[in-house]
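Bug #77: duplicate submission created two jobs. Keeping one. Sequence:
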Amino acid sequence: MQPSLVSVVLIIKSTSKKHLTTVTQQDELVAKCLQGDRRAHFEVYQTYSKAMFNICQRMMGSREAAEDVLQNAFIDVFTKIQSYRGDATLGAWIKRIVINSCLNELKKKRIQFVSTENELADIEYDDYAEDFDLEDIARIKNAIQVLPEGYKIVFTLYPLEGYDHGEIAEILNISEGASKSQYSRAKQKLHQILTQKSKTG
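Kept job's structure:
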């Protein structure tokens, strides 16, 4: 049986996971960071940097760009640590900063998103076939990287990072319909890329 887009996404997510700290440990780490404890800073970085780097690399497309954004993002994390209120997990709070850092860098590329509801009329969000002829997970990872930037960002945020379309709309300052459209178009584009590679490969 060939893997579906959903199953591949779950595998990609699982390979990016790292054991995160408990709520109590998070609180202790934050308290120590607020006191300027460098060992606590290092522990936060060690705990979350790998997962955050994976996000950066998916969004930025290159290791070098991902490393630059990650470094700047963690500077923001430790600068803004006093604003962490515990409403979300520390990892989720850091992830939001990392994603915002990626988006700030990507804005320089003037990414285009579908912005009008009229452009969404021909899109079927849930009916598009999600089965791909994949030989390995690396193929879909590589295919994601060649998506247009707008598609790649929404595809990263929705199935891979677990944001819903309302949250994505808020993050990207676009309509919820535009987020859904970008995701649907991303799936179609992935199918085209993978099908073409299967025929030529």
